[in-house]
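Hi F.,

I've been meaning to write this up properly since the lab meeting, where we talked about keeping a consistent format for the predictions we share between groups. The idea is simple: the sequence comes first, exactly as it goes in, then the structure tokens exactly as they come out, then a line or two of notes. No screenshots and no reformatting. I'm using this chain as the first example so we have something concrete to point to.
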Amino acid sequence: MARKLGFTFLLLAVASICEAAAIFNPISESHKSAAIELFSPADGSFSSLEEAFEALRTFEILGIDTKPDLKDSTCKSVVDILSSESSNSKDLYHALRVSSLLKCKINKEALTGVTSRLQGSVKDAKSLLDFYYSIGGLTLIKDQTSEVDVLLDDADGIFQSIKALSQSDGRWRYSSNNPDSSTYAAGVALETLSGIITLTSSELDGNLIEALKKDVVKLFENIDKYDDGANFFNDQHQGPVSATSSVVHGLTTFASASGTLNIPGDKILGLARFFLGIGIHGNSKDLYHQVDALACLDQNRALVPLILSLPASVLSFTSQDKLKVRVTTVLGSTSTTPPLSVKLMQVFTSGSKDASIINQELRFDPKEEVHTLDAFPAGVDVGKYIFAFEIVLSDPEHKKIYATGGRTKVPVYVTGAIKIDNAKIEILESDSVESQNKLDLSGKNDVALSANHLQKLRLSFQLTTPLQNPFNPHQALLKLRHESGVEHIFVVGNSREHFKITLDFLGLVEKLFYLSGKYDIELTVGDAAMENSFSQAHGHIDLDLPEVPEKATRPPPQAVDPYSRFGPMPEISHIFRPQETRPSQQLSYAFLGLVFVPFLAFLVGLSRLGANMKNFPTSTAPATFAILFHGGIAAVLVLYILLWLKLDLFTTLKTLGVLGMFLLFVGHRALSHLASTSSKVKSA
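Output, unedited:
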């Protein structure tokens, strides 16, 4: 049911009121680190005044100091924009916003000129954004100085012009020519109309204000909701973060200007849950929208949520621990909280709708500003519970001012050591016990069992809590690991009083792949609330199973350790081929002499044929070509020797191709000279 929120503050226990509770904690140091990383300009200045305002506003909210040189350069840009005649209303608006944060020195004449231009823009405005920038700029000037007259002449008419853009579902259009409506535009419209209220010398028509309040109620009727109780607004052109931030900014501004609002209390609480639950954004604009919206809820005198923060999203305690909670604003402040107390009202057992009525007040420590539950209620044993806390205001009159959000349900794990009794392992044959071994599941065991396929293995034990209640852990698994590495896991059943599992090997021979031999026995019992959870071996069993049938399923190949290939490789043993026997040294020298016999025969043949140097050219050019030709032939012979000694075939062929073209050229010139000389001799 909606309640009147004509608040100075709104007390918010930001946790889910459903069974699957969620815990929301205030702004932390992580947000500061993210803001410094995302907003710090790389080159020492911001790319635009809009970006500068988002960064400076985020720094201001989070308590981050601005560098003096950055302030000076930004203020210079502000003065340039405000002094320029070509600056439009949007530029002036962003410049005035930055100036309101940095307190830039702007003379009265400049502000008077800007005021005149913005008032003219209001008269000429055709769209919602035109009104937004112009009226927003005038509101900023009013907040910065009282020496300039920024009041509007026809506030009622301007209000009605903007109100004409509203839709029946609470959303707004950007202009009369644009049929699309937007949730983001609704926030812009609320902030703009709030500015009109502050810029009029007389009160506006009350009917206009009441009509706008009804639009706000309609807008909240279409709000979206997550399962954890977080409420948000979506928009077809803007993301949920920016759209919800716009509505929150407009809503808090309008609430401050107009007074009370009929807003459902649970939906206001859900808005704070949404911004606290989205974490830390890696996008600078979304981080600004998140922090700015939380600051609006925290700083505005009409809507200031406070949250009931806890150490973690899932709390784990022993029965001797103390549970502490803190009531703060969404920005982590405790200075503005009213006198109050926190009570533990109910304790739910996980999975049950039944609850114990507690009504136990937590002790308040004014020094640490925390509320402490010194001892858990009687009957709270090891396990999972849901604690329902309630914030109680000390002054009954504060119920008209603060909204506590009902009861806050928090999941709590109470941990402890579980007692293990009557643990034993048995071999059965025809349901009669063949052998029995008692186990100490909290210590070491090394049982040695043997069985065939006609027998059974039975394992049983009891688990009890410190209050002697049966305990049902999250996991109870029995593992059999064959010596070949094949593993089989079985779930241990629970009969409330005992945990027991019976393995009938006759029905398991196929699952065991007919693998006889040694199986290691390992038992795992674990739970988040069980402090003495364990997973350890308790011995082995030798199984004698039937022979493997031909069509039986083979065991799967075992996984190979990927790091094993980096280990030492097996040693390679190799015997080289024995050295072949060589001929005697005298025989080798005789063969070398025979190799030179053809060369000697060649020289003898030349002398017999009468070879001589008489026709060798004597003039310079022909002699040069002749020498190069004979040198090329010698180079080819040397190339053959190198092929025999060290060159490969491909290198030899490439070199031979180059030498061949060279020999073709110089040989042709040398032989041409010989031919011409011979023809001259014959003609003579």
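Notes:
The longest strand covers residues 383-393.
Residues 649-683 form the longest helix (35 residues).

If this format works for you, I'll send the rest the same way.

G.
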